[in-house]
Write a structure and sequence with these properties.
Length: 152
Amino acid sequence: MIDDLLGLADELAGREAGRPKQTSLRRAVATAYYAVFHALAKLCADQLIGASKPWDVYTPIYRSLDHNAARKLFREARKSSVFAAQLEAIAFAFLTLYDKRIEADYIPEPFRYSRQEVKDLIQDARSAIASIDGLPTDTKLALAVQLLTKTR
């Protein structure tokens, strides 16, 4: 699904010749964000449950990832040295794409990003997903736990 979302984002960003429709660019940004979000949800479920588990066990963990909790974690991670180096590209892309997706989905003003800027955002999503996939196993597990649990 993640690769399909990235492919769809590319398709949407390149859809019209000349000046692209704002809706195409808006959906491309939102789709790129969701590719990163689903990569994180998959990371959580794979690390905490295991990819080979039955869907009725895997899906609730996959669906447990919360947009705002992830946003908060990545904001904090950018300020600390615990995850900073390994998570910088992921945090940057997630936070940037989250903000741009909100703008794309909910702000009725003309969309202010060019086709090239949207393509750059899609590339940021690709880089973040590659970074997620390339994390060491212990960091993947720690990230999954941090994404899905609340600190008390």
